């Protein structure tokens, strides 16, 4: 398998799925739709929707039911980026190589378009009911996504991050922030793919654990890139953690030890997935490449 060719092909497929569910930029609320789409079409790795589809394929899923979840998950993720960039939080001017949403549309529309995307994500995912006879699987997947997004997931992690911004942190609290703010949506993505394909309870649990390790490794690698990469490579400001006095794995353990944690977590994740005795070579390579990325 030529991984780069396959990645380009599957990224394009994912992009088409996402675009097919975006709101029309029309009517009195057209400006908000423009702001939502501006953020959604800014590019990015499309990691989470791709993980949904590839985990679905890992369990031999064949239907179109994953498509609304792929688009919805990217909407949830993009909503979090819009809000992360706001002056009240990270106050960043650039994201994915271009001006952030609030810099283009204003702070109020930045807030509103982020909230609108979060709501529109669920409107989109509800369309999955029309694409399968396995209604219970859709309900289960929706329950997982809602839990992993809310106070016991991404938004809970974000709140603890904001509340402790600039304060000294122990590893336990930093792990809580990372496992909720970052890992939760990766867990939701991979669990959704497994659930929609009919994986059993033990298999979904193994996928959740693997995804948790992937998410933590992904965030630690983000910490490393913030001090070792360039703004041109990342498409966003570097050294922002230092600027905002954020405690990260790099500040706690140093770059070398943080890199060792990334390797250990990624190996655990791959081993867990391979223990399922399923095969998706592209999924395993995708995880390895994304965790050890340079941007």
Automatic annotation (TrEMBL):
Alphabetical list of InterPro entries matching this protein: Isoprenoid_synthase_dom_sf (IPR008949), Polyprenyl_synt (IPR000092), Polyprenyl_synt_CS (IPR033749), Prenyl_diphosphate_synthase (IPR053378)
EC number(s) reported in the record: 2.5.1.10
A single MF term (Gene Ontology): (2E,6E)-farnesyl diphosphate synthase activity
Catalytic activity: isopentenyl diphosphate + (2E)-geranyl diphosphate = (2E,6E)-farnesyl diphosphate + diphosphate
PROSITE patterns assigned: POLYPRENYL_SYNTHASE_1, POLYPRENYL_SYNTHASE_2
Coiled coil: 259-293
GO (cellular component) term, any one: cytoplasm
Major enzyme class: transferase
The keyword Metal-binding appears for this protein: yes
Alphabetized UniProt keyword annotations: Coiled coil, Isoprene biosynthesis, Magnesium, Metal-binding, Transferase
Cofactor: Mg(2+)
Family annotation (Pfam families): polyprenyl_synt
A GO biological process held by the record: terpenoid biosynthetic process
Metal-binding as UniProt keyword: yes
Family classification: Belongs to the FPP/GGPP synthase family.
NCBIfam families per the UniProt record, alphabetical: FPPsyn
Protein name (database record): Farnesyl diphosphate synthase
